[in-house]
Amino acid sequence: MMPVVAIVGRPNVGKSTLFNRILGQRKAIVEDFPGVTRDRNYAEVTRYEKPFTLIDTGGFEPVTEERMLVQMREQSQLAIEEADIILFVADGKEGLTPSDVEVAQMLRRVDKPILYVVNKVDGDAQEVGATEFYALGVETIHTISAEHGRGVPDLIDDILALLPEAAPLRDNEGEVRLAVIGRPNVGKSTLVNRLLGFERMVANPTAGTTRDSVDTPFIYNKNNYLLIDTAGIRRKGKVSQRLEKFSVIQALKAMERAHIVLVVIDAEEGVTDQDMTVAGYAYEKGRAVILVVNKWDRLEKNNRTVSEYTETLRSTFKFLSFAPIIFISALTGQRVNKIMGEVEKVSAEFNKKISTSHLNQLLADAERGHQPPVYQGKRLKLFYITQTAVRPPTFIIFVNKAEGVHFSYQRYLGNKIREAFGFSGCPIRLQFKDRERNE
Ligand SMILES: Nc1nc2c(ncn2[C@@H]2O[C@H](COP(=O)(O)OP(=O)(O)OP(=O)(O)O)[C@@H](O)[C@H]2O)c(=O)[nH]1
Ligand SMILES: Nc1nc2c(ncn2[C@@H]2O[C@H](COP(=O)(O)OP(=O)(O)OP(=O)(O)O)[C@@H](O)[C@H]2O)c(=O)[nH]1
Q: Does the reported pTM lie above 0.80?
């Protein structure tokens, strides 16, 4: 499992600037789908020797100084619980403030590595001022300029040195790993109990403690599955709604290990921002997705309800047009028995490999059906296509000028592949590569 590094600190100290600096870019993989990139507080950082998940805990609007303190406390508390390393960021321009002191005191009691970072130290001249932060009683302070990158490489070195070794992934040959994710209270535990067919203790009765997701192996139709379940992880009630997005961390961790993700949505509440964030990550990570609309018993229905609901979901989750939708009631058990059948289908699709000859035939048909665009005065030529990977299905198309294949034509080709070969539930990846005609 990838370790988590959380950035905490008062508003405006430069947390998101540092986030982007460590990430090395503004991450925007699926710009064309509004909503997917909206919540950019989480990212997988893979450009250094060790990968980690980076979290920016900022972004709240403080109303009053007092309110801000409350929020900072909550924020830090969550970081303490969920992160492996904490970056505490303060503002060197503004100097040490009482809330810095307060949060630092909280962090001091924690048994996790904390890096104290003083930001906006843009040059040597500001170094002296930053020494006042030693009043926090810490041994080392990193003075940096997130904006200009000063001091950041050293900070990153220290983060890497502190990162725990990633726990080895359980990888049993042939086992399908299935994650059940969704907002608190959406019905995950109820669903998981139904799926597994027995009652389990899932709620965590001890306030203030968290546990990681629970893995339960099970067999369905003679195949091995591992159910990764994030239910009951969040402390209930204690944490302000505003910070509910923190439960996304667990979802991320669970999705990292999963092949197939069941995104559970509350039929009554509809799709929330958090659902979008989580589903967006599943998509970006190339996981297979099944949308499960739970609490279907709660809706007043007529003969159009299903199609209307489907339409709404489709227009919200544009990037998940490939995901099957199942309407269930985990409480009554209605249609829960459809889920594993769908999982089997999607799993087969996720592992499906199409022969190069079939693919090339499709490519030729697609090219005839809709000519590739002209690029720099020349018509693009698609030479051949091959499937290079499964989970997710990944294709390389060799072209005379790869950069000229615009998004609309990429989407056209993607749709053609789906029309011909299905891949229900699976995101597909298309890569374009340059190739001379007579190589
Ligand atoms: N001079 C200077 N300004 C910086 C530096 N890093 C960030 N800033 C500025 O500080 C302001 C706040 O930066 P953000 O990164 O948005 O701060 P934040 O902590 O994420 O703020 P919230 O989202 O409100 O929590 C912006 O105007 C940045 O341009 C720096 O290294 N030097
Ligand atoms: N009406 C109705 N209620 C449901 C359904 N599924 C779950 N519930 C109820 O919703 C509440 C939350 O269900 P849980 O299964 O605990 O939800 P969860 O997603 O595991 O919640 P966390 O543990 O907070 O992550 C419980 O009161 C359930 O009885 C459903 O299909 N219909």
A: no
Q: Which residues pair with 384 in a beta bridge?
A: 398
DSSP state of 243: G
Is 231 annotated in some ligand binding site? yes
Which residue has a Cα nearest atom 1 of ligand 1? 120
**CA atoms of 307 and 314, how far apart (whole Å):** 10
- Domains belonging to the chain, first-starting first, are 4-162 (3.40.50.300), 176-350 (3.40.50.300), 356-434 (3.30.300.20)
The reply to whether 182 sits in an annotated binding site is yes
Span from the CA of 143 to the centroid of ligand 1 (angstroms): 14
232 lines ligand 2 (CB under 6 A): yes
| pLDDT value, residue 389 | 95
16 is in an annotated binding site: yes
Helices 152-162 and 15-23: angle between axes, nearest 10 degrees: 80
Check whether the bond before 392 is cis (ω within 30° of 0): yes
Say which ligand is closest to the CA of 17: 1
Q: What is the CA radius of gyration of the chain?
A: 24
CA of 269 to the centre of ligand 2 (A): 13
Average pLDDT per 10 consecutive residues for the chain, totaling 439 residues:
85 89 64 42 84 78 67 74 89 91 83 94 90 90 95 96 75 86 87 75 36 72 86 47 60 88 96 86 92 96 94 93 96 94 97 96 94 90 94 94 89 94 95 74
Task: Locate the ligand 1 atom nearest the alpha carbon of residue 89 and give its number.
Answer: 19
- Report the sign of the C-alpha dihedral through residues 231, 234, 236, 241, in that order: negative
**Residue ranges of E strands in 309-428:** 325-327, 374-375, 378-379, 382-389, 394-399
- Which atom of ligand 2 is nearest to 232's Cα? 23
The ligand minimizing its distance to the Cα of 244 is 2
List 290's β-bridge partners, or say none: 262
> Which tokens go with 76?
């830090």
